Structures are given as structure tokens and as C-alpha cells.
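Take a careful look at the protein record below. Let me know whether the C-alpha cells fit the sequence:
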Amino acid sequence: MVSVQQWTGREASALRAALRMSTRAFAEHLGVALRTVAKWESLGTATQPRPDTQAILDTALARAGSAAQARFEVLIFPGRKSARPADYETWTEDIERAVICVSRQNFPFATSLLNRWLTRHDPHHLDDKGLYLYGRSLVLLGDLQRDQGAILGPLSARHSYMTARGMFTELDIPRRVAQIELSLAVVQEMSGQLESSARQYELLAADERLSPRDRARARLWVGTALSKEGNNGYATGVMVEATRSFEDLGEPEDWSVAHQKLALAHRGVGDLKQALHYIDIARTTGTVDSPMQRVRLDTAYGHILLSDAATRNDGLSVLDQAAQVARQYGLSHQLHSIEGIRKGQQG
């Protein structure tokens, strides 16, 4: 239902018309004087009902039937084109399909599913339900842009996330806003802003707007950002804490990923024995249905093997396999990371 923040004569007159009442019947319906309704009709936006009358109008709108509410919305927002319920159902189904496609890195079809709605609707002309679906579509578009390495610029994950954050802020859905802020911190980390992303992760790790799982993920990512900066000692402690949280929450996949991150942190301090221990846990417990996760796991494993002269050739072979999958699925950020690991070893 459309709501009115501040009633003026214009909105009051539109409600009368939507209810299909005469001025006299409308005055009786509200319990106000006939001259008051006449004043609204003649002055429009130049007059505002008293606060107690504002509340009466709120109640009258809330009690109006769905057809009258729809007529009222058309009168107040003549340019707004609300999608039909059937359209919303189809849009929701396409979002669910896009989620699966993004998780499998089927980016072309996911983009097609999302853009059929994003290009069809102007968000300024959507009602709250439509705006919610538009925001969800933008977040998914941001996810696939991020996975493809398009993190900055006008056609990037950051731009999609920022736009979606504004929509969920307008809709007053704090959990969605916080989730987007977590994604924006990931973009910061990917773009090399390690210190600022670590600070943002720390804030979100204690943010009650997020679910316990998302807070644990934020805590884990504090460790990944610090580890990339070379602060592997502190990073390891944070990651262990996050790993315990995933175990308590019953999140096996996140638990496995945390071991992968721990392996890299131990490699960073030169403890290859512990690094191999943790990467073996990650490789035996993690699922590799997702090409992205397979590339990440193989990249971490290859990086650790490459750090020991005795296993250097094995490491190069594993990195070659990871690079091949990354190229196949258009995972340019991961491909860039693999190239960076190679150059680092050559240096």
C-alpha cells in the first residue's frame, strides 16, 4: 500500500476521488466539516490538514479497499507503473534462477535473467515491492561483476552495490543494507585497500544487523585482509575464532573455507607444515561444485606447494590447472592473482 508522509489538499482530494465519494459523503466518512473538504479541493497543495486530521486521512487510506488504494496511487503517482503480481512472481523466480547461475559462474545467463528486469523498469516508477526486487537484482548483478573482476567504475560491482544500498536504505531494510556494506568491504579488499577493508570488516563483525553467519564471515575476512598485509600472526588468531564460530553455527562449507584461509596465513609466516595441514583439511572437506571455489582452493594449494623448492613443480602444475578453469569461466580477478603468485616466485 502506498503511504503519504504529509497530506495536503491534493492527496486528500485524490483519496476522495479514489473512494468515488462526493465531497459531502467524504466529509461524513471522515467526520470533518464539508467546508474543510471544499477547501482541500480548491487549494490543493497550498493547504495542509491539521495533525489530527492527517491521522484521520491515514486511517481512511489504510481502511480503503485494494481497488481504491490502487486508484489513489495512480492519482498521486500518474507516472508510476507498478508491475502486476504475476510479473513480480516471475521476477522473483528469475532472481532465484540467477542465484544458482551466479553460484555456478554461469555469468552470461545470469546477466540475461537480471537485465530483462533491470532494463525493463525505471526504479523511480516502482512501488516498494518492485523496488525491493530491483535492489535484489542489482545485488546479484554486483556479485557476478565482482566474480568477473569488474570491481570499480560505472559498470562495476561497486556501482551496483551502491545503487542497491540506496534502495534498501529507502525501503528501511537494515539487514540488506548491512549485507551490501559487507560486499562493499570485499570490493575494497579486492581493489587493494586492505587496511580500510579490514576496519570495515571489524565493524561489521559486531553489527547486529547481520546474521551470526555473516558476522562470522566478516571476522574471517578481517583475517584475510590482514594476512595480505603481512600481519599473519594476528590474522591467524582472528581466523581461528571465525572457524570456531562456523563450527558452532553448523556451517561446514564456511568452516572448510576458513581452513583454506588459515593455510595461506601459515604459509605467510613460513610454517609450511601447518599450511599443508590446513589446506589438506580444506581440500578433503570442501565442496568444489563451484568453479570459483575450485579455482580458489587450487590456487591456495598451488601457492603453498610453490613455496617449497621440493614441491615447486607440483605447485606450478596445480596453478596451471587453476588458471585454465579461471580462463574458462571468465574469472579475471582469480587469474590475475595466479599470475601475481607466479611473478612473486620468479622475483
Remarks:
- The two ends are 63 Å apart (CA to CA).
- The chain has 18 helices and no strands.
- The mean pLDDT is 91.
- The longest helix spans residues 128-147.
